[in-house]
Design goal:
Chain lengths: 364, 364
DNA sequence: TTGAAAGCGCTAACAG
DNA sequence: CTGTTAGCGCTTTCAA
């Protein structure tokens, strides 16, 4: 039971595969001819082409992508650097990104730096060694991160669900402000007048953006914001319950609607309201943010919520990256629209299909 | 603005980087010497080494990994093929896997096939073209999947959190049965005698394994299982609430403990018990499965739960894969131990630190 | 229509 | 101690 050291038994060789030389030999043609036949290049006799293809199939030939890349100076790979420990927001983004890039034959090197700058640098080094054609950086969203150091400035870098100060970089983000406004517009449109906003820690940029959106909608409706109705706390259900205690415990006029900074807060709030004997949405309407099914659907009643359309964000990131690899120069901050999914907590009829609305809002 | 097609502007070249030729030229030595200096190979005059390294730094030289691999016939990459849409169970596994492999300088190609066999095959083809040194397959756990078709049989393949019938393959799974027994042992040890098991759909192998573990523990304690106490339904909070209605609605002697198949069921159950005026854990103890913080910690009271140690599973997968790449032959089904995290729902003092226990249980 | 050869960037064996 | 060279597997001129 030897160690699994670097010099293992017959260690090292990746499964030996047929080379184009083998194919050529078996087909009885030259190596150049074989290449042409396989790449449908140049003019070859149909007979030769068939012969070569047959030989290739026989041998299970698959061209060595590294050798191809070496020649083409195009690796057909990109790096994805994540810092959110692959968190739940990142997943749908990655999924869509992978899907998009795969359609173009581009593979993804996945790296996780867990917020350790040194590991991050190591990963970037590795990726540069692999000659990735582009890099996508993703992170927890609290703060702007320092730009990745890529020498030469020629490699496309996109920050998605993450932001940096580098003016040359492209940052892709959900339109938090617009999404929040969408939610509050909806509450107002369904007759609510005293809308409170219960949200997360103020250090998050998303918190202030969503608050802005909340204010936007109130202003638009001619309602004056009331400072008692803005409550910042943790991103948790417990905070949602506490906030309800604060807002409905007397001392201030109770709101008739709650727009919450995320679904956990909204769920906690909905629970607390029910336990106080207040009906949702009868007495108080509740809207959350994230549209996280596990929370939004399990809540009683199911929560209306703002969806950040992370899948679309991931797809957009893939498309932008491909464009940049193709030579386009893109930079700045691009915010993609959120949508509102209406469920019972804000007055939808039970059992009816959700009717998402969209707001298109681009900032650069 | 033109399409982002394959023939973009100056498309294609990955950021041109200094080659070892450039380094050699700048250092005024031959290309072979430069290579030796950089790889600390052979015997060189210290002066030359310094000169070369300085030149390399000046030029920001980073060896082209594809060229190296081409020569070494070892790509230092592995593929990860997932089918669970990157689901929440897969994340911690991937994280640990990535960490483990990165320590060995191995990079990961991430692919998602979303249960489409055709896309899966495409991805495998791509990966074979990239000459990956190994492959890791992950999936939703309901059923055994058909083995991946890798020609030649020489490439290491590991199925993690996923199982296949191929007797030559290595499958890594959590020890569901042992984990369940751990939970029920704990309930019995803390004085419970009427332990019910509320779990998910019977099609899941995990459901029957956890049921086995439940029976194991009862038997060990000399308690006879009662068929009324076994309830299978959906993996949801709603089912947890329903099950409580069934178990405590009269007609059968109510249990004094609930071992639930996952944390969502457990949370629903805890909610329903509270709403019935039953104290948790005073009247009924509750233990969940998965130790999913979002559920377990947000529940009232916080849930005791079985942790599948997915991080350890991922790390094990990485280590096994490295061993196999090194030439070791591993096969069979390996089940890694779960652990129990005790919180208030099963009688832990409030605010005290959780005391995980471990069971080591390997099956092949 | 096909074959031969150069070269992508690197390493290692062999000369000098 | 250092330089030269063959070759990893492939594509692509350039000849034949």
């Amino acid at each position: 039971m030897g160690g699994s050291g670097d010099k293992g038994v017959e260690a090292g060789a990746y499964p030996a595969r047929a080379t184009i030389r083998d194919v050529a030999a078996r087909a009885g043609v030259s190596i150049g001819t074989a290449s042409k036949a396989l790449n449908a290049n140049g003019r070859l006799k149909q007979d030769t082409i068939d012969k070569v293809i047959a030989a290739a199939n026989d041998l299970g030939f698959r061209p060595n992508a590294m050798a191809q890349s070496l020649h083409r100076t195009r690796s057909m790979t990109v790096g994805v650097l994540t810092n959110d420990s692959f968190g739940r927001f990142i997943f749908p983004i990655l999924e869509a990104l992978e899907e998009t890039l795969a359609e173009h034959g581009i593979a993804i090197f996945m790296c996780n730096a867990t917020d350790d700058p040194q590991r991050e640098q190591q990963h970037v080094d590795q990726l540069l060694g692999k000659r990735i054609d582009g890099l996508l950086v993703t992170a927890r969203r609290m703060d702007r991160r320092p730009p990745i150091a890529v020498p030469g400035k020629s490699m496309p870098v996109i920050y998605v669900f993450s932001q940096t100060d580098d003016p040359d970089a492209l940052c892709l983000l959900p339109d938090d402000r617009g999404g929040a406004a969408l939610a509050v517009d909806h509450l107002i449109a369904t007759g609510r007048r005293r809308v409170a906003h219960v949200t997360g820690p103020t250090e998050f940029e998303a918190v202030s953006l969503r608050y802005q959106g909340y204010l936007d909608a109130l202003t638009r409706a001619g309602l004056s914001p009331q400072s008692d109705y803005y409550r910042s706390g943790a991103w948790s259900e417990a905070w949602g319950r506490d906030a309800v205690a604060q807002l409905f415990g007397g001392g201030i006029e109770p709101p008739d609607a709650l727009f919450c900074g995320n679904d956990q807060i909204a769920r906690g709030a909905a629970d607390a309201l029910r336990e106080r004997g207040l009906a949702v949405p009868g007495d108080v309407a509740v809207v959350g943010f994230d549209n996280w099914d596990v929370m939004a659907l399990a809540a009683r009643p199911p929560l209306s919520s703002v969806d950040m359309n992370l899948h679309a964000l991931g797809r957009a990131a893939g498309e932008r990256l491909i464009a940049m690899i193709g030579g386009e120069r893109l930079a700045g901050v691009e915010r993609l629209p959120c949508s509102l999914v209406v469920r019972q907590s804000s007055g939808e009829e039970p059992q009816s299909a959700p009717a998402p609305k969209f707001q298109t809002n681009k900032t650069s």
